[in-house]
Write a structure and sequence with these properties.
- This protein has 122 residues and is mainly α.
- The protein is 63% helix and 9% strand.
- A three-stranded antiparallel β-sheet has the order 1-3-2.
């Protein structure tokens, strides 16, 4: 149901429903510089989750730090902003499909852990 480019963006950039909600909130308010505490309260999340998502989004070029401890949505490129817009649009139309894509995405950490117990053939 979701276009391949939206699925690929979700799998490469959105690691959880928490991350999706944080991106959507910041995207809706692009001129607002959020503190970690403000995001935590607004999303009813934890400092650890919010901080981790902010670090990931900053690394991906989705947010920028505008002052010490304050972040706002700012896509690094117009292409990246267009990907976010497509995600927002598809989430508005097909929220379940977006959430399923996030929840069913392969988790590389879990796979690495499982592979550690795999028996090797000699």
């Amino acid at each position: 149901m979701l276009p391949e480019d939206v699925v690929n963006f979700i799998r490469s950039s959105i690691g959880s429903i928490w991350a999706l909600e944080q991106l959507l909130l910041m995207h809706r308010n692009p001129d607002r510089a959020w503190s970690v505490d403000e995001l935590t309260r607004e999303l009813r999340s934890s400092l650890g989750i919010v901080s981790g998502v902010l670090m990931q989004f900053e690394r991906l070029g989705l947010v920028e730090q505008v002052a010490e401890g304050r972040y706002r949505y700012r896509a690094a490129t117009t292409e990246l902003d267009a990907q976010v817009e497509r995600l927002v649009s598809h989430y508005a139309q097909f929220p379940l499909a977006v959430m399923q894509t996030i929840l069913l995405a392969p988790n590389h950490k879990i796979q690495l852990f499982a592979d550690a117990f795999r028996l090797k053939k000699e």
